[in-house]
Design goal:
Layout lengths: L2 H13 L3 H14 L5 H8 L16 H12 L3 H11 L2 H8 L9 H12 L6 H15 L2 H12 L8 H13 L5 H10 L3 H11 L4 H4 L14 E2 L3 H8 L2 E5 L4 E8 L5 E3 L24 E10 L10 H5 L7 H7 L2 E11 L2 E2 L5 H9 L8 E3 L3 E3 L2 H13 L4 E6 L13 E5 L12 E9 L12 E8 L2 E8 L5 H11 L3 E2 L6 E2 L8 E3 L4 E5 L2 E4 L7 E4 L2 E5 L11 H10 L1
Parallel strand pairs: 1-11, 6-8, 14-16
Antiparallel strand pairs: 2-9, 2-10, 3-4, 3-5, 5-6, 6-7, 10-11, 12-13, 12-17, 12-18, 13-14, 15-17, 18-21, 19-20
Helix pairs in contact: 1-2, 2-10, 3-12, 4-5, 4-6, 4-8, 6-9, 7-8, 10-12, 14-18
């Protein structure tokens, strides 16, 4: 397929708001793409060149893009800037200035040229990127130049996500979503939507699960917990359960294979191995040639050697001299599950079978600790353990269904968390993870912070819907930190996935990147917040740098919290 034909599909998708219509358009496109190019097209339509865990980024700023457009179309930089101020979209600026017909590259050629730009690093790379961008912009037609500019800036928002691509792959095969669950199950084990698309296009989804298994270096989508407030309800829904401590740490998926680089991934699949030099010693203690583990990295207070809080652990992200910082601020990996050992998948094994593997996995050491657990069918045991863990300074108890396999995502009553509600976290049964959609400048003292109030939203399929505005309960330090996070992701136009009532529009829209954990007193019905509900008396608990926008709270989860509150 030519790049110009692909761009026509992108334009059609951009104009379409109905999810089912988008799915049908994608299915038609997938049928036209070859086996060799479908993965590349899928990456590009999601605004990237590879799955998230590979961390391939363009690092192209707006100023660089304006210089590339100026060079490509022989226009003065000031003129480009003037047009951009009017349009608010450098993609459309490129399209308006492109007077050529282009060379009609094919999809694989376009992908190759974009990859060349992303891989350009080192001294003088900025100038080389601008030159490569200019060459690419001038070699494509006007419509394609719109999407080239947006992709490289990280601003291609066509209004759908991996989930819609999965539905479209099923639709390509059957004309409906019959095979979506099967395809999604494979994607959860190997979350590379390009690879999954290529497999389905080449062989169909029939044998997909047989060919997909946990792979060293490719993070499995983690298993997540549901919410149940009552221990009695837990026993009623789950019967025989295991009770584990819930740590206030950073969820880390560890990938180890002798002779290979160690991998460490957050719950949003980012590779964070550089944060943890301690991982280099795992080979000394693990009784396996390869293993994929689920764990919680928990910092230790340097003076008391007691467990530190989440924010202390997250300080490692901002440290350059990580080796010395790690020595002064040690941590432990509380290992609680195993997905694979020596090439054998344990994801379909039950809890006790997986625990039996964990029990024999490590020789005695102080860094990699298999956490404790208790099996019971008694609600009183759950409550007692929950109180015990709280008294130890932990977050409470995690309860797991004994006869369940390791099932990625948040499905069924397999894992549930039990949290104590206190005055600092509000009166809801749990906190809510939201994405910051935009902000309003502060007045008076807050004018110095840059942010006075922010609009927060939750997930509804591929849309983000507003649920609250937050302007109180933040410290001066948090206001400044928020401003630092938001100032570089301001966009001129409301992102296509945002649904917001006009009365709630902020002064500045931002890209959906900053995730915050909010507490609130209660949920109320709202005629203006597009989630249909509003958080009453919301306050910031913490920034969740370990979570992506795909992992924020959904509207269905909000309704569950409302029932539990």
């Amino acid at each position: 397929m030519t790049a110009s034909n692909l761009s026509k599909y992108f334009e059609e998708l951009e104009k379409t708001s109905s999810r089912i219509s988008i799915t049908k358009i994608l299915a038609e496109l997938f049928n036209e793409l070859s086996e060799e190019e479908i993965d590349k097209a899928v990456y590009m339509m999601l605004g990237s060149l590879a799955p998230n865990y590979r961390s391939i980024v363009f690092n192209v700023a707006e100023a660089m893009m304006m210089r590339a457009i100026s060079r490509a179309y022989n226009v003065e930089p000031q003129e480009v800037k003037t047009i951009y101020k009017k349009m608010g979209d450098l993609g459309k600026v490129a399209e308006s200035l492109n007077r050529g017909k282009g060379n009609d590259l094919i999809v694989s050629e376009l992908y190759s040229k974009l990859s060349q730009i992303a891989k350009c690093e080192g001294e003088g790379s900025q100038e080389r990127k601008i030159e490569l961008l200019a060459d690419l912009l001038v070699s494509v037609n006007p419509l394609t130049s719109r999407f080239v500019a947006r992709i490289t800036l990280g601003k291609l928002r066509l209004g759908f996500s991996d989930k819609t691509v999965i539905d479209a792959l099923s639709w390509m095969e059957t004309g409906d979503k019959t095979n979506s669950k099967k395809i999604e199950a494979a994607f959860q084990v190997v979350p590379d939507i390009g690879k999954i698309a290529r497999e389905v296009r080449a062989k169909g989804s029939g044998g997909l699960l047989n060919e997909i298994s946990p792979t060293i270096g490719i993070p499995v989508i983690p298993m997540l917990a549901q919410r149940i407030k009552s221990a009695d309800e837990m026993i009623k829904k789950m019967d025989n359960v295991a009770v584990e401590p819930k740590f206030d740490g950073l969820r880390v998926q560890i990938h180890f294979a002798r002779g290979k680089k160690i991998g460490a991934f957050t719950r949003n699949l980012n590779d964070i191995k550089d944060m943890f030099p301690e991982l280099e010693s795992i080979g000394e203690y693990v009784n396996a040639d390869s293993v994929i583990l689920d764990s919680e990295a928990v910092g230790l207070d340097a003076e008391t050697m007691k467990m530190a809080d989440f924010q202390t652990t997250m300080h490692r992200r901002r440290k350059h001299d990580i080796e010395n910082f790690a020595k002064a601020n040690p941590l432990t990996f509380q290992v609680f599950d195993v997905m694979s050992k020596d090439g054998e998948s344990f994801m379909d094994k039950n809890y006790e079978e997986r625990r039996a593997v964990l029990k024999k996995l490590f020789s005695k050491n102080k860094t990699f600790l298999v956490d404790e657990y208790m099996i019971t069918q008694n609600a009183g045991d759950i409550r007692k353990k929950h109180e015990e863990y709280l008294a130890r300074g932990l977050e409470g108890a995690m309860i797991k269904k004994v006869d369940s396999g390791y099932v990625p995502g948040r499905t069924g009553w397999r894992w549930v968390k039990m949290k104590e509600v206190d005055g600092t976290r509000g009166k809801l049964s749990d906190t809510v993870d939201c994405v910051v959609m935009g902000y309003t400048r502060g007045k008076g003292k807050r004018a110095d912070f840059g942010v006075g109030q922010f609009l927060a939203g939750v997930l509804d399929h591929d849309k983000i819907k507003s649920i609250t505005k937050v302007g109180t309960g933040l410290t001066d330090e948090q206001f400044r930190a928020l401003n630092d996070k938001l100032k570089d992701i301001v966009v001129a136009l409301k992102p296509v996935e945002y649904e917001v009532h006009k009365d709630l529009y902020p002064d500045f829209w931002v890209e959906p990147k900053v995730v915050v954990e909010l507490a609130a007193d209660e949920l109320t019905k709202s005629p203006k917040h597009t989630a249909g509900l509003a958080l009453r008396f919301p306050r910031l608990v913490r920034f969740r740098e370990d979570k992506s926008v795909k992992q924020i709270t959904t509207i269905s989860e909000i309704l569950e919290i409302a029932k539990l509150g």
